[in-house]
Amino acid sequence: xxxxxxxxxxxxxxxxxxASLAPSIHNxxxxxxxxxxxxxxxYADRTRQLxxxxxxxxxxxxxxxxxxxxxxxxxxxxxxxxxxxxxxxxEDGDLLARVRLGGATAPxxxxxxxxxxxxxxxxxxxxFADQPPSDEALRQLTAAADAGGAxxxxxxxxxxxxxxxxxxxxxxxxxxxxxxxxxxxxxTHRDLDSGEGLPAGVLPEPAARRVPIRDFAPDQDAALPDExxxxxxxxxxxxxxxxxxxxxxxxRGGEALGSVLLTVVRLGLAVSPYSDPIEVLATRQLIxxxxxxxxxAPYLVLRLGVASPEQPPRARxxxxxxxxxxxxxxxx
Length: 332
Ligand SMILES: Cc1cc2nc3c(=O)[nH]c(=O)nc-3n(C[C@H](O)[C@H](O)[C@H](O)COP(=O)(O)O)c2cc1C
Hints:
Elements: H1 8-19, E1 31-35, E2 39-44, H2 58-77, E3 80-86, E4 95-104, H3 109-120, H4 135-148, E5 151-154, H5 160-175, H6 178-188, E6 236-242, H7 247-266, E7 270-274, H8 276-279, H9 281-291, E8 297-305, H10 322-325, E9 326-328
Parallel strand pairs: 1-9
Antiparallel strand pairs: 1-2, 2-4, 3-4, 5-6, 6-8, 7-8
Bound molecules: flavin mononucleotide.
């Protein structure tokens, strides 16, 4: 499959197109690829930034980082080593990466499997089965984060209440913000075939959980029983973190997240993220202090577990037309 003799521009275009399967905050897909004859440039699309929810652009940059990791997997699977320069232009922070084809290489079995995982990966917000992920699986997930350029801290059982508190407090503060509410409403009320956002069919039925997921429908009454049994009793939680809280590290954090998510698929596990406790300064600091204990800057919380066969399936999120996000630049 080593791919000499293929036109670099078409290979780079295919890789960028596959990268659009990457996850993104509220499925905003805040990226644009300019595909030149010999390289492709990944830009942050600031018109799609959630200015109230994600004013720093942390989640936007993490999302683009996953897209960058997916593009690299696609190039390796096509038989090329990706040659990536991150943030190549000090004058333009929105140019997140420039990618060229490095040498030809036979794709490894692992890489081909990662490529296939990209095609089926999705977030699963449904309550998990009563079965914990194995210690070995969790070890492989932390190794994937390390290899990807960031780290994963497995939340210890005695730290879960802190995560629950952080999520609860972040939700209260965000729901009190009209601009946050408007963004949430905007991105959760698009048609399923619009190819963006989180239409209702994607989101799970309300459930009482140990660590509640983001309330995507705060104007609807969840109508839960008075003393419901808590779902996700066997879920494990993890914090994706890095050495610094800046765009260069968020980009690497996104690449690490991509590796973790593809490893989740390989291990047959399920995952969904929580960015709400990171979006709010006070709860981000709480997680940094009480959960990470100074290990680094938190980027995202993950809920990890085993999918329950008893839960009804949910619709998959769509994607924007590739022509909107991958723009070939004609030769001069
Ligand atoms: C940086 C980032 C933050 C996210 N935050 C949340 C979140 O707080 N709650 C949630 O349920 N999903 C969250 N998601 C998941 C996205 O909503 C999801 O990836 C997107 O809708 C695309 O769906 P898919 O991943 O199933 O393809 C986040 C994803 C990313 C990459």
